[in-house]
UniProtKB/TrEMBL annotation:
It comes from Enteroscipio rubneri. This is Uncharacterized protein.
């Protein structure tokens, strides 16, 4: 019975770690998208292309969306890890304070 409970606990931790990993992967993907947008914007500026106000606003709103999504996914990963970790994890209190 105890072995079954321990196995179930390990499976829960493994599942949570996989969920956290997925959230981090999505955050990284969002940040890569942001880097691509910044590269395109920089290339256009280097070529001295003119941007309309609409283009600039669109770029800024897209940049804000991507950053917001990346932060949300990292927070999701942190919450998942906090749920499965105990208070003995170093830096956990610092993470909670930074929010």
């Amino acid at each position: 019975m105890e072995e079954h409970a321990a196995a179930a606990g390990c499976e829960g931790v493994r599942s949570a770690a996989m969920d956290a990993g997925s959230a981090v992967a999505e955050a990284i993907s969002s940040l890569r998208g942001l880097l691509m947008c910044l590269s395109l914007y920089d290339a256009a500026l280097q070529n001295e292309e003119e941007f309309s106000l609409y283009d600039a606003l669109h770029f800024n709103s897209m940049q804000g969306y991507v950053l917001h999504r990346a932060v949300a996914k990292m927070e999701e990963a942190c919450l998942i890890l906090e749920d499965v970790s105990g208070p003995e994890i170093p830096g956990k209190a610092d993470l909670a304070e930074s929010r």
